Amino acid sequence: MTRGLSRGIAAAMLWAATCPTAGAETLAATVEQWGLLGSWAVDCAARPDRDKGALLTYEIRKDGRVMYRRDFGDARDENEVVSATVNAEGLLNVTVYFPSLRQAREFGLLLAKDGSLRAIYNRSERGEYTIKDGKYVATAAPTPTQHRCD
User: CB under 8 Å to 95, separation ≥6 — which residues?
Assistant: First the structure.
């Protein structure tokens, strides 16, 4: 009987640890509590430009979806954020689906104490990085800090 009770308790603990709970945070709550919502740019006074800096906006729609808008000046797009989690170091891991690229990309964002935002990594579904360890893979230059524009 003790063995059966032990197995029952172990199974219940495993179930409780792996099943989502009613109090689990939604995607919208995660990005809002972390501080991601709003518009961000390297220079908020500058017009959006593909080479000099885009205006990046995160918003929650009335239907609860989290959207990621990019304004490059000569081009704009809107893409859905499909997941967001915060790790133990406070890094926000975001996955965005880009229909125009036919792929999802995952990126890690770090919010500094002064309120600025910095990309720590950006990778494709296949694990190909454009940003790794806070640096652009192609140039090894550090990613710039972005500031809230609204």
Answer: 81, 82, 83, 84, 104, 105, 106
